[in-house]
Amino acid sequence: MDPADLKGIITSVRVGKQLADFLVVAIHCHQNSFAFQAYSQDHSTPNFLIELAHQVIDNGADAFVGHGVHNLRGVEIYKGKPIFYGVSSFFYHRGAAPEIASLSAGAGAGVNELEDNLETVLTTSRFEDGKLVEVRLYPADLGQDRTRPISRSGTPSTPSPEMAHRVLERLQALSKQFGTTISIQNGVGVIRIASKQGN
User: Fold this and answer.
1) What is the pLDDT of residue 96?
2) Cα–Cα distance between 40 and 32 in angstroms, integer?
3) Geometric angle at alpha carbon 90, from 187 and 194, rounded to 5°
4) Which of 95, 116, 140, 194 is the least crowded, having the fewest Cβ atoms under 10 Å away?
């Protein structure tokens, strides 16, 4: 990270927290194991993103969300705050780029249409008395079977039970490196935050 940029971001977080009861920091970040988004089905989280997420929470943020990368990354609970390193795309519009338009002509998948680029996750975080107690992860299908008309392609919909389970198993594996345990209950990922015993 550029030190001047980081300093500016941290200053913005501190000021924002003075003006808000709850502060979410989001970043549009394509980097993965490469210096750019390689559309390689690479779910790794770059070290600078982990460092940034931790620093903004250390300086007052209540949650951190990474987006821009077109696939899923792990979830971390850091100091009782949720970090979503990559939630994929909420939706996208097919036909906006030539390589996507070519798909309808039978030329093959565009860069955003690899199998794992067509799945996403919606999240909810439940707080009680200002403390995070539970995170829920809801998989969504952006048209992975490629049978939808273009007008509905890229719009999130309820996945098949098999797809939901596959997405959640991937999130379990990706989150393990952060010490996060995700249980799967009826097609929903659940993270329960253990309460600390009295002081």
Assistant:
1) 46
2) 9
3) 50
4) 194
